[in-house]
Amino acid sequence: MPQKFQRARSEEQRAARREAILDTAADMLAEMPVAQVSLNELSRRVGLAKSNVLRYFESREDVLLELLGSATRELVGHLETALAEAAGPAEPAGRADRLAARVARALADRPVLCDLISAQAAVLERNVSPQVAAQFKRAAIVNATALAGLVATHLPELGQEDAFRFVAATVMVTGSVWAHAQPCAAMLTVYEEDPALAVFRLDFEDTLRETLEVLLSGLLARAERARLGSWAVGEPSEER
């Protein structure tokens, strides 16, 4: 049953109203993909007129971007523990593979987050004001920096800069792989009728893990070349 609200007259009431809208939108995302979440249905479920919902969030996309930010913060908290548990003596390549596996597993366990990430650039960022966009990006930088810190701790050979590059690339790769790993009914029928075409059907977690492994391998190789190059430049020449 939709909730019935009295007019919010205090900051506490307005904050509660915002939380109710966010909680209702989160419940909807547990039932349906991002593309099917409408402002009309959100308003109906939360028990407010659409115009009243827009007093708290300027658009459907504003609501979903806030949920994306909170879901990302939860992911960072989870990975803080998951990556610590994966720590241990090993060559950089072995630690990199464990890191890729833990990140891929954590994202596969969070389909709503993956769906939001896949819609972020093409949809969610397209119907917000500069103010909301700036607020979202500032929060995204905080989350990415925190995650990069975890990556750099687990794989110090990368350094903080390349750890941040890895995090940024992970977001882009996640969105792309998620979209390709969610085939429509017609594609599923094609794959079933002609197994030879199923080579294009992706398993999300496996594909993401393999892609992140390759990405980390490349970043580590480049970091090693840079280190060796700096050592060679700094090495004193032999006297003749």
Automatic annotation (TrEMBL):
Domain of life (superkingdom): Bacteria
Protein name, UniProt field: TetR/AcrR family transcriptional regulator
Which controlled-vocabulary keywords does the entry list? Answer: DNA-binding
Species whose genome carries this gene: Streptomyces goshikiensis
All residue ranges annotated as the HTH tetR-type domain in the record = 15-75
Entry keyword DNA-binding: yes
Gene3D superfamilies per the UniProt record, alphabetical:
Tetracycline Repressor, domain 2
Q: Per the database entry, where does the chain bind DNA? A: 38-57
